[in-house]
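Record filed here:
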Amino acid sequence: MLIEQIRTDLNTATKARDSDRQRTLRSIIAAVQEAQVSGDQAKELDDDGVMGVLKAQVKRRIDAAEAFDAGNAADRAAAERAEQAIIEEYLPAALGDDELAAIVDGVMMSNGFSTKADMGTAMKAVNAQVAGRADGRRVAELVKSRLA
């Protein structure tokens, strides 16, 4: 399981005295544990659930880095981006622009999506193919441009 790999990597980082990696991996583990106990019943997250937590953590780091950049705190923005890079090691590789465009074009052609009214259905179909390997905003912009 993915969370076990993260815990193993935390032990390795601790032995190597890599404090940045330790801090990041501990925050991931804490976020996963929080997700497990939230809601009505405590539940063990599978790899997909852990991936969801990791994606949320990446988004959080991106937003924080942008806020620090806006506030002229470049050192803190760099620290957030470093944490983001560590978290992204546990996520599947992101799709490149050409790969994403090919998936979007294929879905549009095979389903006959052509008008703005098809946006919701097209997004659902594309997201099923993309499976979290691309940012939702990027996917939405590309789908919208194809439906124009």
